[in-house]
Amino acid sequence: MFFEKTYYLVPTEAGLKPCSLFVEALRIANKVAIGKMILRNKEYVVALRAFKKGIALHTLFYKDEVKDINELDEIRKLVVVSKEELELAKILISQLTNEDF
């Protein structure tokens, strides 16, 4: 599954018990629910999954929106990175890394 965006759902007071039941059933079954949602006049395929004490709703990419990993090899062949560039990039990453984050 390839997530596009994530939303955390909070039920209304009236939906608290059915939502809790649904979350616990998903958790016990170790499953996700797949469905459709319309947001801002656009239809999305979504996955609902138990997350901590609630539900996470993930919008998913359609198959044609996801590139085949093998296509990356063809693109990478077009780029040549020198040893010096790589060393400079490693130094930059090292200097900008914050271990306290």
Mean pLDDT equals 86
In N-to-C order, the SSE pattern is: EHEEEHH
Strand order in space, largest sheet: 1-4-3-2
Helix percent reads: 25-40%
Low-confidence stretches: none
The share of residues in extended strands comes to 25-35%
Query: Separation of termini?
Result: 28 Å
Question: What descriptive keywords fit this protein?
Answer:
alpha+beta; four-stranded antiparallel sheet; 4 strands; 37% helix
Map the helices and strands.
Layout: E1 3-9, H1 16-29, E2 33-39, E3 42-51, E4 54-60, H2 69-77, H3 83-96
Antiparallel strand pairs: 1-4, 2-3, 3-4
Structural notes for this entry:
A 4-stranded antiparallel β-sheet has the order 1-4-3-2. The protein has helices spanning 16-29, 69-77, 83-96, and strands at 3-9, 33-39, 42-51, 54-60. With 101 residues, it is of the alpha+beta class. The two termini are 28 Å apart. It contains 3 helices and 4 strands, in the order βαβββαα. It has a domain at 3-65.
